[in-house]
Amino acid sequence: MESAADNHSTDSNSEADNNMTRPISSSSSSSAVQRALLLIQSDDSDSKLQAAREIRRLTKTSQRCRRQLSEAVKPLVSMLRVRVDSPESQPQHEAALLALLNLAVKDEKNKISIVEAGALEPIISFLKSQDLNLQEYATASLLTLSASTVNKPIITASGAIPLLVQVLKHGSPQARADAVMALSNLSTHPNNLHVILETKPIPSIVNLLKNCKKSSKTAEKCSALIESLVGFEEGRIALTSEEGGVLAVVEVLENGSLQSREHAVGALLTMCQSDRCKYREPILREGVIPGLLELTVQGTPKSQSKAQMLLQLLRESPYPRSELQPDTLENIVCNIISQIDGEEQSGKAKKMLAEMVQVSMEQSLRHLQQRALVCTPTEKLPIASCTSEVSSK
Asked: Are residues 194 and 56 in the same domain?
């Protein structure tokens, strides 16, 4: 699922208003920019509305137009303050929000200017709107604005986090996806994780994770947020208390993108390291072994390392064996498999181990073949020369 910031901003592949998708030539953009700036300063509400829609169109694909139209930020923010009970409020609010959203995407200065102009107060009020479109656009705007390091503490201080969690619980599918991404952005600022934890977001994050495509950006942000939140005991308890919570993380570990899988294994490793006795069984019970085995071969370097560490902790004894019984990955996995209940899960783990050994053998064979090719010179070389070249690889 793509974010509303993608669907309604410069990165969009399609535009809701088809008549606004025509390309902007370099010769006409300058005059169009000047005309939009003139109209947005007008006292006439219809002229302002027309200008906002034109600014949205102009900034859809042009970084240059976003810079040239930065002067429009303040009048657009003033449009957000039109009273809700006013007849023209809905189109004014939506047009201004979408124009500001396009101005902010990929432009750090505009992101900061929008917040400095006082946009947060009306945007946050729209999070509580019964109008799902307005709520969706407001959530997308916060997602974009929260990408700025300067804005993060200001957004937090404005009380946005509890409202974003409410959107995460009750919003439209698009708004929920954008809300979790905004929360993930805000979570990187010091102390924000405590604020997020206080809103008890994990049931809603897990629910979203269960229902989204595991290879999606949404799943990646859910996994990243969970990995951060399980660094606290409240987060670990919330995840294991939520029905299907650990399973949802295991499913990402098996089927997610490389980055999502890295977050998922990181979350499970954090739990097991915090209290192995408490969290080992809940993790094993969800059939994590096959996914971990695959990660040790096919994951990112971080995923491989974390998967191996987690496999160590999941075995009956987390401590290395004696020198007479080498602590190989195969021994570790065999030790775990012997403790697994259920033929299906045990059989799957054994099959994965066999496949892993096969992959390892194939990789070793390819390595030997590559070494042999190095030792097959076009001209006759002394044996010592060939040996020297192989040893340097």
From this structure: yes
Query: Helix, strand, or coil here: 43?
Result: coil
Tokens 């810079």 — which residue?
67
Which CATH number characterizes residue 74's domain? Answer: 1.25.10.10
Q: How many domains does the chain have?
A: 2
Residues 175, 157: Cα–Cα separation, whole Å: 21
Domain containing 305: what range?
202-315
First-to-last C-alpha distance (Å) of the chain:
44
Q: What is the pLDDT of residues 336-351, one digit of tens each?
A: 655 555 555 556 555 6
Which pLDDT tens digit goes with each residue over 303-361?
999 999 999 999 866 555 444 444 555 566 666 655 555 555 556 555 655 555 455 44
Place of tokens 């997602």: 143
Q: What is the pTM of this model?
A: 0.78
The 10s digit of each residue's pLDDT in 219-246 is: 999 999 999 999 999 999 999 999 999 9
Name, in order, each residue with C-beta under 8 angstroms of 117's C-beta and a sequence gap of 6 or more.
Answer: 73, 74, 77
